[in-house]
Request: fold
Amino acid sequence: MNAMPWACEPVRPIDGITAPTFLIPDNMCDTHMHVFGPISQYPPVTDARYDWPGGTLNQYLGIADRLSIARMVFVQPSYYGLDNSCMFDLMQKVTQPYRAVVFMPDALDAGELDAMHEIGVRGLRLDFFKAVDDGMDQQDMEDMLVRAARAAQPLGWHVELYSPGYITYRLFAAISRAPVPVSINHFGYMSQIEGIEDRHFQEFVAFVGTSNCWVKLTAPYRVKPVSPERTIDMARQLVDIAPDRILWGTDWPHIPQGSIDTGTLFNNLLAWCPDESRRNAILVDNPARLYQFD
Reply:
């Protein structure tokens, strides 16, 4: 656990968001965003990694309008842990098509999961950063993955990993055995600062190409050290190996760097995926399949 929570920057105002520089396809989907409510109504978990980041639904909808985002996937932030009440309440205020991903509940009650499905949930998220903090070993994490996959399978859901790259690297075999798709955040979180070398990333790319693994091109600022050149190379390799299983998302409100320009991040897709047909698949077709929009 962090000794001190991250101090979140104020969220960048809408008029400071750069407009798209390329043609936006219809039904574009943001597959990774978070929203937050008033602390008095929705308190954080006791060991939250960051302080209240702002990031209200109305602010996000302004971003969506600015970037022509037509569909969105609410992802439960670690700030609220297993308490989905904020996300579920705010989902009901949205008129655009949406889906959601929740952290795996402690008790996997079939009736509760069915009710979640009815309101748009399509995935179970596993927090392996927290698992590391809690002292779990690899077998514990493999067991978590198995449990989540078994719960997700009857509903046609997927499992999403919020995981350090070095942990994901150790879980290739377990991921490949999962009977459901497995989505991995943030370029696989393949950070060199955590010991990931080029050969590890090459093995990750090869693994993505031969498994039912999906990767989100999200939050390049989390892949340390930050390098635009390396990010371009990573994105192009992933797109080349699995163009039908790559996703894009804002990771808004960019915790803890709320001042980041979401529009500039979005425009990186031109360099990450120069091919328009593949780019449109990343923005529309791929998320439509995984999150069952169609």
